């Protein structure tokens, strides 16, 4: 048997009934096959799991695809064939386990890919939370009473196809950039995998594996419902003195739509010391208008750690069962910050009070390595989704961003202006470029607008006017208008509306005697009396 095949089989030894028999069939050299969903010998080209050459550090594209496909198919043997869901409402278990172990199993084969701790976050968790935050989402487990209901289980939200790409960093010498695309189901498979991952981290790997083994042994070659699985996992917990009702916990996540956002705040009450925090939960939805229904609650396994400029404490598990609770954590002062949902093992978002966000941002600027890559990914994803801006005010956001940030942001908006095909978006981006506080960039934009074809001719006047409305660009626009008047008048002089718009816009904020005299010298030389009249009206 090729070495890759042996390693794949070994990765499942702790959690399978008869892994040798199942995986020998799955990895036997033979015909090509897909992801079979029925109990029969699997035959693949097993060389795809092995290295390209003995001792080689380069992993082939075939190996990547093959490993994922074989792990997925192998898990179907246990959670689809050996034990089959008793009814359609529990199909997500089979799909969720298959997708969860794709990452766990492939991570065992190729640890440097960081499949479980990093790729799972971007490929699975962030993807499904984006969909599950919509008001059109639904519980992952749905009742099926007649044949026509089956389509509802596999509707667009339950089995939507999305494409992901591996983009491993070339700086890692163990692998190279892989143009690998594979399809996954969302959120039937994605959400199921995310919930199973959360449960596995709550229980711990040994107890989780023990519960799965008991479940498979008790129901092998038969049917089982999700409650049967929850029961075996609860028994595994009680065997170690941990009395957690897995069924009660998981029903909140599988029978309710969506997920919560958990808000953590340092306690400001004078009656409690500084090592207490206040934690609240509410249903997370992107749509503001439907956020009024706040009756949903979850049993949230929140992990929390306390950090400062040089260290991060060990994580602590806190159960959040109510809308708002107060909990004790490690000693804190004004310089310590809180970090919740460590490594994003939980299926929820985390928000903080403003001061804690400021401390986290400062930490990321000064010493980011204290916060792990997974936690940093979680902070970024949560921040962007919690602060999502409605599209109808994006012009304000673009302008504010350009005015507050550096030249790189200006260049980014400039490139977006050229790459977008939407006329309305082009106008918003071009106007945002005039919001910069950097006079060099404003002057550059003015010169580019008139002396090149990079800015559409009909938008040149808008550029000059908006630069003039910027306090940092007022004098620039006025000087540019005077220096380029002959060119501007030659181009737009016959278009009275355009010319009047330009003069009105540029002279709108003139308020000094010097500017008054400059305008009288410049405009009367123009033979067009309309321009003179407009200038007089403005002045």
UniProtKB/TrEMBL annotation:
<feature type="domain" description="Peptidase M1 membrane alanine aminopeptidase">
    <location>
        <begin position="71"/>
        <end position="162"/>
    </location>
</feature>
<dbReference type="GO" id="GO:0016020">
    <property type="term" value="C:membrane"/>
</dbReference>
<dbReference type="GO" id="GO:0043171">
    <property type="term" value="P:peptide catabolic process"/>
</dbReference>
<comment type="similarity">
    <text>Belongs to the peptidase M1 family.</text>
</comment>
<dbReference type="InterPro" id="IPR014782">
    <property type="entry name" value="Peptidase_M1_dom"/>
</dbReference>
<dbReference type="InterPro" id="IPR027268">
    <property type="entry name" value="Peptidase_M4/M1_CTD_sf"/>
</dbReference>
<feature type="domain" description="ERAP1-like C-terminal">
    <location>
        <begin position="337"/>
        <end position="388"/>
    </location>
</feature>
<dbReference type="InterPro" id="IPR024571">
    <property type="entry name" value="ERAP1-like_C_dom"/>
</dbReference>
<dbReference type="GO" id="GO:0008270">
    <property type="term" value="F:zinc ion binding"/>
</dbReference>
<dbReference type="GO" id="GO:0070006">
    <property type="term" value="F:metalloaminopeptidase activity"/>
</dbReference>
<dbReference type="Pfam" id="PF01433">
    <property type="entry name" value="Peptidase_M1"/>
</dbReference>
<feature type="domain" description="Peptidase M1 membrane alanine aminopeptidase">
    <location>
        <begin position="192"/>
        <end position="253"/>
    </location>
</feature>
<dbReference type="InterPro" id="IPR050344">
    <property type="entry name" value="Peptidase_M1_aminopeptidases"/>
</dbReference>
<dbReference type="GO" id="GO:0042277">
    <property type="term" value="F:peptide binding"/>
</dbReference>
<protein>
    <recommendedName>
        <fullName>Thyrotropin-releasing hormone-degrading ectoenzyme</fullName>
    </recommendedName>
</protein>
<dbReference type="Pfam" id="PF11838">
    <property type="entry name" value="ERAP1_C"/>
</dbReference>
<dbReference type="GO" id="GO:0006508">
    <property type="term" value="P:proteolysis"/>
</dbReference>
<dbReference type="GO" id="GO:0005615">
    <property type="term" value="C:extracellular space"/>
</dbReference>
<dbReference type="GO" id="GO:0005737">
    <property type="term" value="C:cytoplasm"/>
</dbReference>
<feature type="domain" description="ERAP1-like C-terminal">
    <location>
        <begin position="389"/>
        <end position="518"/>
    </location>
</feature>
């Amino acid at each position: 048997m090729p070495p890759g095949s042996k390693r794949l089989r070994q990765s499942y030894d702790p959690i399978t009934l008869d892994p040798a028999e199942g995986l020998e069939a799955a990895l036997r050299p033979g015909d090509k096959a897909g992801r079979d969903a029925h109990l029969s010998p699997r035959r693949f080209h097993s060389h795809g799991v092995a290295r390209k050459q003995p001792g080689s550090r380069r992993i082939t594209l075939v190996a990547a695809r093959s490993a994922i496909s074989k792990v997925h198919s192998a898990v179907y043997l246990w959670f689809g064939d050996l034990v089959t869901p008793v009814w359609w409402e529990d199909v997500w278990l089979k799909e969720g386990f298959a997708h969860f172990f794709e990452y766990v199993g492939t991570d065992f084969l190729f640890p440097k890919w960081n499949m479980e701790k990093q790729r799972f976050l971007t490929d699975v968790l962030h993807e499904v939370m984006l969909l599950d935050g919509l008001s059109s989402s639904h519980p992952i487990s749905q009742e099926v009473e007649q044949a026509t209901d089956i389509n509802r289980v596999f509707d667009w939200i339950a089995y939507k196809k999305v494409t992901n790409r591996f983009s491993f960093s070339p700086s890692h010498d163990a692998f190279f950039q892989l143009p690998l695309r594979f399809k996954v189901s969302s959120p039937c498979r994605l959400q199921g995998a995310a919930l199973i991952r959360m449960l596995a981290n709550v229980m711990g790997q040994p107890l989780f594996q023990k519960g799965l083994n008991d479940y498979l042994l008790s129901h092998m070659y038969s049917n089982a419902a999700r409650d049967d699985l929850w029961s075996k996992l609860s028994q595994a917990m009680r065997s170690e003195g941990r009395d957690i009702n897995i069924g009660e916990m998981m029903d909140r996540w599988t029978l309710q739509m969506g997920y919560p956002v958990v808000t953590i705040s340092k306690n400001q009450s004078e009656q409690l010391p500084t090592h207490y925090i206040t934690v609240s939960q509410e249903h997370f939805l992107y749509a503001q208008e439907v956020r009024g229904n706040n009756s949903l609650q979850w049993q949230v396994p929140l992990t929390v750690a306390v950090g400062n400029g040089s260290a991060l404490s060990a994580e602590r598990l806190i159960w959040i069962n109510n809308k708002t609770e107060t909990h004790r954590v490690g000693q804190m002062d004004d310089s310590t910050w809180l970090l919740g949902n460590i490594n994003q093992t939980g299926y929820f978002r985390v928000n903080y009070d403003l001061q804690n966000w400021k401390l986290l941002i400062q930490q990321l600027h000064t010493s980011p390595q204290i916060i792990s890559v997974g936690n940093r990914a979680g902070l970024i994803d949560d921040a962007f989704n919690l602060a999502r801006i409605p599209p109808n005010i994006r012009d304000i956001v673009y302008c504010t961003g350009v005015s507050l940030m550096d030249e790189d942001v200006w260049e980014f908006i400039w490139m977006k202006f050229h790459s977008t095909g939407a006329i309305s978006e082009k106008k918003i981006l071009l106007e945002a470029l005039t919001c910069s506080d950097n006079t060099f960039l404003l002057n550059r934009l003015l010169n580019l607008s008139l002396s090149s074809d990079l800015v559409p001719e009909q938008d040149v006047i808008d550029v000059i006017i908006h630069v003039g409305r910027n306090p940092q660009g007022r004098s620039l626009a006025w000087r540019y208008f005077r220096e380029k008047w002959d060119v501007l008048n030659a181009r737009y002089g016959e278009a009275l509306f355009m010319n009047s718009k330009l003069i009105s816009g540029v002279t709108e904020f003139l308020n000094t005697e010097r500017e008054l005299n400059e305008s009288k010298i410049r405009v009367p030389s123009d033979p067009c009396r309309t321009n003179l009249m407009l200038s007089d009206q403005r002045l």
